[in-house]
Amino acid sequence: MKSLVEILKEEPTDKLANGFGEFYEELFRPIRHTALRILEIGIAQGGSLRAWKKYFTKADIYGLDIEADFVEAAREFRIRTFKIDAGNWAQLSGWACDQSFDVIIDDGSHNSNDIDCAFKVLWSRCSSYYIIEDAQAPHARQIIDYFASFAFNTVLNGSVIENLMFRPYMIVLQKKC
């Protein structure tokens, strides 16, 4: 069975170039063959969605994007895609009201306002990992400060956070089981 890094080499995605492949391999190995619901914000050519589908053998994969062409092109068996603006509170919360996910990966616009909106809507819909990719300039400081403050405040109030990791270009929040 192929590793995630091997799978990512086959698909058009920037996850290897950004150094995420090895980290994800280690993080997700224990849940690889578990029935999961995984959401990725930002579809582009659909490479990440297809990689998740190949890696997570029992997962249903969901993708959101504002580009209709990306949404249509990425649909296939076990991959459901939706034309949703993750920075539009009303649109995202309307779609998410009856959704739940084990893993959420925000690889969308990388705009701090969109990241903030998506997190506020989707955090309660996530049971395990919430990940923000490409958390870097020009909004890195604002994004990192927001999540550090969020984690600090939730810890003081009986946190649901098991782990908070700030990695190069990535923020990972893990919920307590």
Give your account of this protein's structure.
The chain has a seven-stranded mixed β-sheet with strand order 3-2-1-4-5-7-6, sandwiched between helices. Strand 2, helix 4 (68-74) and strand 3 (79-83) form a beta-alpha-beta unit. The chain has one domain: Vaccinia Virus protein VP39 (Rossmann fold), CATH 3.40.50. The two termini are 28 Å apart. 38% of the residues lie in helices and 24% in strands. By secondary structure, the chain is α/β, with parallel strands linked by helices.
Key phrases:
seven-stranded mixed beta sheet; 177 residues; Rossmann fold; globular; single chain; alpha/beta; 38% helix
Instruction: Provide the domain count.
Output: 1
The total strand number stands at 7
Biggest sheet, in brief? 7 strands, mixed
Strand arrangement within the widest β-sheet reads: 3-2-1-4-5-7-6
Supply the helix-strand structural class.
alpha/beta
Summarize the topology:
Elements: H1 4-10, H2 20-28, E1 37-41, H3 47-55, E2 60-65, H4 68-74, E3 79-83, H5 89-96, E4 101-106, H6 112-122, E5 126-133, H7 140-156, E6 161-167, E7 170-175
Parallel strand pairs: 1-2, 1-4, 2-3, 4-5
Antiparallel strand pairs: 5-7, 6-7
Helix pairs in contact: 1-3, 5-6
